[in-house]
């Protein structure tokens, strides 16, 4: 099971490719998969894809054509546009990675097949209801420890696999400014489930998920061109996904696999994008921490639409941006359902 | 700070010493500390302690003499008796370890100074309110990642440091029987805070805590001689401590340091001790998961006494054992306060 490559069930979504070495480096691991490239900037520029890759490429014009007025929910000139790729995919699983992320090496010096580890993570259950001190009990050589209730040992389906980064850590602008030279060199050989009721900062650099289980909640919000904020796209998606997974009994894992994050983005540019988020997240986190879904919320879509209403009601007071975001959340679901109609063969969690 | 040895502020509590090599092996790391040995079996047998160690030894006769009728709360012929040592200590910190736990080696082959790592864990804050994907943000080379709310970055005081075990994993009897050859060989180079609201199975083999912050909740229950259950002493303490820490805004960390657990206990004997616990924990866990303290519970003692009432009320139905345990919990607090009067110099959390 864990060694399955899922060739026909997984798409790789890449927000853009500025670095020509990127795909060459990943060739041994990515070549067998279908790529969806969502170009984040000027549509007149051409993205070069090396020979041998099976891919589809969408630029802004394509997004506008496919979604019509609903394209307003997809960010422009920001890597948040990648979520359009999640929507147009017809596969069960998605892996998304940034073009400044390269193949990392494990402590023995061997290249890490990040995708293989994500697939392992997604194919075995999560354990959000009780912490296991030897971490993922489904990993070879590990199990549930003494005192772990037997009724909880089946676990729950895994919806998200959050991978980490060696070299440049995913710090915010203030931390980047204070610690410009800090590098993550610690390889922590571990995967764990983030417990139920606990929020985490989900990074979109090296992320895999099950579209059928959680796809409609994997919306990366309104960032970039025309928006007051950036670099909160993956965070927003992570907070929404976490509360929905907790409600629906799904799991989110974090830890392995590592990629090698090659270059730090400019902390001054980042600060400009982030500074409103630094204030706003002080309101956003309590909002998500105290959030409860009604009993009617039996699908991801229903959860997401209800969440959008509460964003409007409770976060709209923080800044008018959240009124716009709440509307975009609804538009996103409409667009998702348009491209993934509930009666289609590919069973979508929303159609159950 | 992190390199402080806390020589005058930490006692090592050992439930018994059957293995003469045990203290010799730990000599370089333990010799500077005061040991409290609580003999778990026949008081007429003599425990040999090698020269050069500073220790006090308590057998059953001593416990009876010191606590009088309240000695009924201390288990006999079971390593759960170790909690008497927590009570008689006058130090701020406790480290407790089993006599079949030896010095482990890190991946570079170096002996691990378990106590030093526990002290590091206890001296820097915990982060129970939000998960940090690079784990302990206070560790060298790590920090809070992007998206971690700044208002939560001070963390909370750390009350408990739960260390792990290489070689023989801490499995229950059924898992031991199914996987007799499984060994834990994975060194996970990591410490993390167990999030608020999440229970975990706390193992007493390799455990450190801050007596002033959480001592009165570190009661190992009624096990062994005359009791229907064993091997749930540390679990019970862990569940009580976790809900109290969550309520009082204290943290519990797990992960490093490792010790080398040398020998598996007999799974058939273990099954006999455990089997009632295997049923009961299916009721115990929901009890703790749904537990809430009243606002009056501002000290560990007050929390613990309130908890004992609810144990009586809600778990008493499961088995009369819990009625006895609930009474013993109250007796334990009385005995604790007798030996650690609130007005003493050594500031106890209860006296604040």
From TrEMBL, chains A, B:
Swiss-Prot/TrEMBL keywords? Cell wall biogenesis/degradation, Glycoprotein, Golgi apparatus
- Family named by the database record: Belongs to the RGP family.
- Is Glycoprotein tagged as a keyword? yes
Q: Which InterPro entries match?
A: RGP, RGP_fam
Query: What EC number(s) does its UniProt record assign?
Result: 5.4.99.30
The identity of this protein, by name, is UDP-arabinopyranose mutase
Q: Which GO terms describe its biological process?
A: cell wall organization; plant-type cell wall organization or biogenesis; UDP-L-arabinose metabolic process
Q: Which domain of life is it from?
A: Eukaryota
Asked if the Swiss-Prot or TrEMBL record annotates the protein with the keyword Amino-acid biosynthesis, the reply is no
Q: Which GO terms describe its cellular component?
A: cytosol; Golgi apparatus; plant-type cell wall
Which subcellular locations apply to this protein?
Golgi apparatus
List the glycosylation sites. 146
Provide the reaction this enzyme catalyses: UDP-beta-L-arabinofuranose = UDP-beta-L-arabinopyranose
Please state the protein's primary subcellular location.
Golgi
Q: Which GO terms describe its molecular function?
A: UDP-arabinopyranose mutase activity
């Amino acid at each position: 099971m864990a060694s399955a490559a899922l060739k026909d069930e997984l798409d790789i979504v890449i927000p853009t490719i500025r670095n020509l070495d990127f795909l060459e480096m990943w060739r041994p691991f990515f070549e067998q998969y279908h790529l969806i490239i969502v170009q984040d900037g000027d549509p007149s520029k051409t993205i070069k894809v090396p020979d041998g890759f099976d891919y589809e490429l969408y630029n802004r014009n394509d997004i506008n054509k496919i979604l019509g007025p609903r394209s307003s929910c997809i960010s422009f000139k920001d890597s948040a546009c990648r979520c359009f790729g999640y929507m147009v995919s017809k596969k069960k699983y998605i892996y998304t990675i940034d073009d400044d992320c390269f193949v990392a090496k494990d402590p023995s010096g061997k290249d890490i097949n990040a995708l293989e580890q994500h697939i392992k993570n997604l194919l075995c259950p999560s354990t959000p209801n009780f912490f296991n001190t030897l971490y993922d009990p489904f990993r070879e050589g590990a199990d549930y420890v003494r005192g772990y209730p037997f009724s909880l040992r089946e676990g729950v389906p895994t919806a998200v696999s959050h991978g980490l980064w060696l070299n440049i850590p995913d710090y915010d602008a203030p931390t980047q400014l204070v610690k410009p030279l800090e590098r993550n060199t610690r390889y922590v050989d571990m995967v764990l489930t983030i417990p139920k009721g606990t929020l985490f900062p989900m990074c979109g650099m090296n992320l895999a998920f099950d579209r059928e289980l959680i796809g409609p909640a994997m919306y990366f919000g309104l960032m970039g061109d025309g928006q007051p904020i950036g670099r909160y796209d993956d965070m927003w998606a992570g907070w929404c996904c976490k509360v929905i997974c907790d409600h629906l009994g799904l799991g989110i894992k974090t830890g392995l696999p590592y990629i090698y994050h090659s270059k730090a983005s400019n902390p001054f540019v980042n600060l400009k994008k982030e500074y409103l988020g630094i204030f706003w997240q002080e309101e956003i986190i309590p909002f998500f921490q105290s959030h409860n879904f009604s009993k009617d919320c039996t699908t991801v879509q229903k959860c997401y639409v209800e969440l959008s209403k509460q964003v409007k009601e409770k976060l709209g007071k923080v800044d008018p941006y959240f009124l716009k975001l709440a509307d975009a959340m609804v538009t996103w679901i409409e667009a998702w359902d348009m491209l993934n109609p509930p009666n289609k063969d590919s069973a979508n969690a929303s159609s159950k």
